[in-house]
Amino acid sequence: MDRIAITGGAQLNGTIPVSGAKNSAIKLMAASLLTDQPLRLTNMPRLADTRFLGKLLTRLGVSVTESDGPDGQETVLHAPEITSGFAPYDLVRQMRASFNVLGPLVARSGQAKVSLPGGCTIGARPVDLHLQAIEALGAKIDLHEGYVYAQAPRGLKGAEIVFPIVSVGATEHAMLAAVLADGVTVIKNAACEPELVDLQECLNAMGAKVEGAGTPTVTITGVARLNGASHSVIPDRIEMGTYAVAAAMAGGEVRLTKARPELIESLSVKLEEAGATVVRTEDGVIVKRNGSRLNAVDLETAPFPGFATDLQAQFMALMTTANGESRIRETIFENRFMHAPELMRLGADISVHGGEARVRGVAQLEGAEVMATDLRASVSLVIAGLVARGETVVSRIYHLDRGFERLEEKLGACGAQVRRIKGDGEPEL
Ligand code: EPU
Predict the structure, then answer these.
(1) Atom 43 (ligand 1) nearest CA
(2) 45 belongs to an annotated ligand binding site
């Protein structure tokens, strides 16, 4: 399998264009199941996760066509009819968000059999709230042998859905199902992440009637059918935040473009508190740090607009060489510190107590071989490698390929010494 080698010490100077958001693109792709007309998505990232979902959608009857159009990378998804309502384990386990095909399948064709996604390294990540929502909309749900069987032969019915905790995936799933339900659905305690606003805009372009996404109450008035549409995927705030942290770590000056500064405001505030300079521009941010060491700052992850859990590992990497002790509390997932022991292999001084990590900054990290267990953890090791003395080699980078488009190219264009070492095809232990 491929690995990534980083030789530390180079500053980053240059421009990085931000790609379309993975976590939005994969929900928008699922929306193609709701109509017999083509859905054209532009600003599409080309990632392992979009490929996984494309494979599953193809099995369900969607033609998936990727091209480079006048608006950049685009994907056209077209499901004249649903040829199968079966999403097998071998495809769903590769990418958990594939589970979100359940709602659109039941909404459009009255039935579905979708594998439960199973566990995940960052936490148990159950799907009980997803099932609660689809059931509230009138589907009969049975669980057998690892599969969800859902049936609504006479269609879904609008309902009030009150989530006991905030869930991005369950809110999106409820929206994806309710757009074709008969009557009005009100989702309370909805997640407010920008990707939900993106989903609302796409669904409304398809003829749906969704209001309130981005607030805790989303109201959906069901329609009998949806049309095709063309929609541009929102910029990836996590990719933008990751490169902002990389610039603060390595020093230099990096301009992030094709993005929206307000999507990473909670990170920008922390970067400034630590001593980096963040200049908001019309289409992104410029992040600078010249010479002096950063200060340790504390943080706690929270739902949007709070500090994103998907940027916690990267910020922890940044804090490994800051001046002082930083306390980092993870509140969204129960096991999202798997990067800490790997950062310690690079010389970081970190102790983890339950949901809190204490990072005592060291003067210098040293390159080593490391591996990661999830996407954001992997990129935190790359960020640490940017300043570690000598060479850092990150293995299991299939995690990185799930969510970062052309990472070596983007960092390399700013002067980072990053290269991919092609694997011999042997699986890693
Ligand atoms: N939860 C439940 N039951 C459910 C659903 C969620 O208990 O039915 C719990 C989860 O276990 C977690 C909390 O609720 O403790 C919040 O999870 P949420 O549902 O909001 O997360 P998600 O939809 O599974 C998405 C992103 C994650 C991101 C989180 C939080 C996608 C594909 N994934 O996950 O992104 O961390 O929201 O913002 O959109 C990543 O990209 O690396 C990633 C993990």
Answers:
(1) 310
(2) no
Reported as a single tens digit per residue, the pLDDT across 222-263 is: 999 999 999 999 999 999 999 999 999 999 999 999 999 999
| Cα–Cα distance for residue pair 46/303, rounded to 1 Å | 26
Can you give the pLDDT at residue 426?
Answer: 58
Nearest CA to ligand 1 atom 40: 310
Tokens of 263: 């999507």
pLDDT for the residue numbered 292: 87
Q: Which domains does the chain have, with CATH numbers?
A: 3-19+235-421 (3.65.10.10), 22-232 (3.65.10.10)
pLDDT digits (tens, 9 = 90+) for 131-154: 999 999 999 999 999 999 999 999
CB 397 within 8 A of CB 378: yes
Taking CA atoms, 34 is separated from 211, 218, 227, 349, in Å, by 18, 19, 9, 50
C-alpha 73/C-alpha 42 separation (Å) is: 6
What's the predicted TM-score (pTM) here?
0.97
Catalytic residue among 120, 192, 202, 414: 120
Does residue 425 register a pLDDT over 80?
Answer: no
Mutate to test the pocket of ligand 1, among 168, 197, 234, 376 (most ligand atoms within 8 A of CB): 168
The band of 423, judged by pLDDT with boundaries at 50, 70 and 90, is confident
Which residue(s) pair with 219 in the sheet? 186, 211
Concerning whether 414 is annotated as a catalytic residue, the answer is no
Query: Could you give the CA distance from residue 236 to residue 225 in angstroms, rounded to a whole number?
Result: 30
Tell me the mean pLDDT in the region 274-297: 95
Q: Which helix (H) or strand (E) holds 174?
A: helix 168-178
